Amino acid sequence: GAEKKKKTKQGAETLMPAFFKSMGSDSPARPRQKFCGMFCPVEGSSDSKTLDFDALSACRGRSDRRVIDRQTDISQPRKVEIRESTGKEALQNLDDKRSDRLLIKGAKIVNDDQSFCADIYMEDGVIKQIGENLIVPGGVKTIDAHGRMLMPGGIDVHTRFQMPDRGMTSADDFYQGTKAALAGGTTMIIDHVVPEPGISLISAFEQWREWADSKSCCDYSLHVDITEWHKGIQEEMETLVKDHGVNSFLVYLAYKDVFQLTDAQVYEVFSVIRDLGAIAQVHAENGDIVAEEQRRILEQGITGPEGHVLSHPEEVEAEAVNRSVTVANQTNCPLYVTKVMSKSAADVIAQARKKGTVVYGEPITASLGTDGSHYWSKNWAKAAAYVTSPPLSPDPTTPDYLNSLLSCGDLQVTGSAHCPFNTAQRAVGKDDFSLIPEGVNGTEERMSIIWDKCVVTGKMDENQFVAVTSTNAAKIFNLYPRKGRIAVGSDADLVLWDPDVTKIISAKSHNSTVEYNIFEGTEVRGGPLVVISQGKIVLEEGNLHTTEGSGRYVARKPFSDYVYKRIKARSRLAELRGVPRGLYDGPVCEVSVTPKTMTPASSAKTSPAKQPNQPVRNLHQSGFSLSGAQIDDNVPRRNTQRIVAPPGGRANITSLG
Amino acid sequence: MSDRLLIKGGRIVNDDQSFHADIYMEDGLIKQIGDNLIVPGGVKTIEAQGKMVIPGGIDIHTHFQMPYRGTTTVDDFTQGSKAALAGGTTMIVDHVIPEPGSSLMEAYDQWRQWADEKACCDYSLHVDITHWNDSVKQEVDNLIKEKGVNSFQVYMAYKDYYQMSNSELYEVFTFLAERGGIAQVHAENGEIIAEEQARMLQMGITGPEGHVLSRPEELEAEAVFRAITIASQTNCPLYVTRVMSKSAADIISQARKRGNVVFGEPITASLGTDGTHYWSKNWAKAASFVTSPPLSPDPTTPDYLNTLLSSGDLSVTGSAHCTFSVAQKAIGKDDFTQIPEGVNGVEERMVLIWDKAVTTGKMDENMFVAVTSTNAAKILNLYPRKGRIAVGSDADLVIWDTDSIRTITAKTHNSAAEYNVFEGMELRGAPLVVICQGKIVLEDGNLHVTSGVGRFIPCSPFPDFAYKRVKARKQLAVLRAVPRGMYDGPVSEFSMSRGGTPSASARTSPTKQPVRNLHQSGFSLAGNPAPCGPPTPDDIPIRPAGRRIVVPPGGRSNITSLS
Description:
Chain A is an alpha/beta fold. Helices cover about 30% and strands about 15% of the residues of chain A. Chain A has helices at about 1-20, 55, 85-90, 175-185, 200-215, 230-245, 265-275, 285-300, 305-310, 315-330, 345-355, 365-370, 380-385, 400-410, 425, 445-455, 460-475, 560-575, 620, and strands at about 80-85, 100-110, 115-125, 125-130, 140-145, 150, 155-160, 165, 170, 185-195, 220-225, 250, 280-285, 335-340, 360-365, 495-505, 525-535, 535-540, 545. Chain B has a domain at about 55-390 and about 400-430: TIM Barrel, CATH 3.20.20. Chain B is globular and about 90 Å long. Chain B: GO terms for molecular function: hydrolase activity, acting on carbon-nitrogen (but not peptide) bonds, in cyclic amides. Chain B: Necessary for signaling by class 3 semaphorins and subsequent remodeling of the cytoskeleton. Plays a role in axon guidance, neuronal growth cone collapse and cell migration.
């Protein structure tokens, strides 16, 4: 035990030197390593200052000469040695050209809770063994990791590939999109099904399945957006949860007169979602105010992309987040806020969590990596490329702030909301910013941006990095531990991470099809060296080997433990009781015949969550019978969530503070 | 009774300072303040003997004689203003509540008539906006310009009745900001309340406890947050009526820290008692506490609100006095949603705040004057006529006895209601003498009031207290487009079948105007009269309270965020 621990520790120490071992060895006087970012932005300034890694590593273990091919220039991707089986071993695998068996030796395995050194053996897309001196069959392809970090592949919880918008389709389809995801170290995406209002959820879902099954290169799952609300939708949601493996639904508080739901509808949707054990996602912006502001801004003659951000002020985002938190609390429904773009919205989430609300916040690559000052770019096409909702905040300190909250756990998961449109598509709104199709890129850049902004700067460690890029997403959406963890039995979706590679993000080299990359010119440190998806190597030496249509749909069960343990406990506590009183037999004032609907508003629309109108029950007739059966036993009760307060105070279950 | 009055030896307490001086009043006005005043003979003199003389209280929120489904609240303007005077309040501001769909002006005239006939003290009126369209807008304009109303309340609760949508709120606030009005909100999320009410009734909870269970304080806080957001967007001063819970008060104080122009009004009930009584076994007692937003079941709430009132985070106090008899409350005996809403508090307001905040050392007597009188006068633009003891101000004064102790009970109160929500509370501090319009109305425990002497006090728009900041922000808030060349690249085909975003609200919104095309007006390179590039101030049409500055890349100064 102790010896093993020691060895592990030594392994960890060995990591860096071994890795850099042959660096600059072809030109000892001038190390090739050029550091980037905040530490050393000036080219050549590291001359003669870089440590001599050769000297450092000389006495360590694990430093065999085969490690890495010489690195002649940092612009070249780093290499790992991948040994194909040869000779006799090869004969055993004649029928299997691309072996499904894979061994990674000497990796530092990074999960969200710990890091440790071990070998890892995969077969048939599943991790079969983890440990040292594994006994593996012959003919196994082996990767020598040499102490580099091996992490669970990223999960991009929010993509919109191939999304239809007014007859157009977002520029990256499932093939292009998942290819970009894999190139960035993301091995699973969760896309949003956006049914046109009036279209059945199921048929939209099946349409998306068809698109994704035929094109996706990595595993995927689907959120379904609720774009309207009536009785049929509730039934479809039940079907989706029970038969189609969907456990998350998004509602829109924005896009007035298109997708937007009223507060009462949101309440009902959340009630249904809670009963189904799913997650309520919300696009949080006050659509009413946005519509008013858009009109005002257009009236003032502002038609360019700057009008987009001016008409979507961050207060309006924070307001909607606050409102959805309130509704979620009332309905005891877990809440997930997509696209956290501003400081104030993030603050509202952080405060709600402190008060005990079950709420999760999802900043996206764009809000973590750039800001909204580009909306004022003189180049219309560039400015338009940043248009997304909620918009990027013009406050340049926002990314740093969101990265901090992500690091401390106030925000939990990251997506990309990848939904780029090309310039011709954007130009639909050339005379009116409100017509510009919305969405930015980010699926490829997500992992690297977070590494660069959070891990390199010391805001988070590599374990938290794994948590926010992969594990938390898997937990929330009930994919854990199949996804989001390196463990025996988990899917073989892995990334061998190179913490030191630097790269300048550019539309010239990205895998998306659009002309602009909103992170253009950003130099990021850290990137995937090898990406393994479904047990197959899809990225090595900078080369992508993706197969269109190989991605599987991953069904998700409801009542994710990570989310619902607390919800269930609260439901159990929430028994409401009336006060038993004698009948009031005093005088009663006459009321005019036209009773104004003073309060118990009957929504004009039929609301599926509402029980068919029961006659109002009299407490004294029904509630406090001492016999076992109650006359209302046949009335299905909705989950309740509050405790009757005894005079003198009550324990408010949603307020832990 | 003599119109000339001299108070000798009192300690005058204003919101800024206290000092010893005599006060001489004539014709309902304060004529002289100082020592050794030269006054005509035959003046009635009150020996104050070092007692505090404070400006009479202003109860900024009452509902006297309010019609409700064919009945009327039990305290009419006589009964109500009598109770007010008995408690040291010399001016009340009542809410005019027009039926949705009916004329604001008619309702205003009706209230004026009732109050002019019956009020025993000066009064002003808020007008509630219960629906919104072009004619309402016109009426609001007239009320501001000609009728002396500067504050209008909108409702975020009472779904399908009074409740306004967010877009309507935006439009009302925009309009009020232009015309110098104060936007008051009844802040509760009516949509969710309706859902919760249905749920409670379905579970068989029909008693008054259902009222508070269906209106959790989060819904109040949520609505306050939303109202603040909209007010901030429209650069409109906001006034939150009836702050009943800690979380709502917290939202207001946070917003004030961020620089929002927002005022919070806790009421006597929320400062003095809590919502545990909703669980009383006595239905009539429980029902007498029914008001919206409800009293918080958290018993630490009153203390918390008193603290925020003392620190200045909450600005003014009202009573929301709106009393119903037990028989009237019993309309809802089988369904809590039918119980008429409202509690007493106009008489107890000053005493209660004195007891809870001054005797406990939370605030001093000057702050007491500020929250019971001066701040209200400033918001209503009546300062310094009301809310201050100064030469030229109205002779509405109270000689305050800091040591008197008495027990509040329905047996002795001046309201006509059978229950008093403060029943049995022993409170220290009381008015000894109340002077209204220069006349003594309370002396030796005896009230001498006259129905119909109360005058309507018109309030003018753009109160400095709220609008100085708003105006400054408006000047800064000029939006400019980025001058760009025309985009001449390819444009995708697209269908407009789904309105991407620029929602065309189905309702006619009075503030809507045709959308201007930038390329027609803004960036022509020819020498036509259309403004080129950044418009000069003259070119800018009068804006509905723009408030944002265009950000140069690299940062902006957010005027509503002072931090």
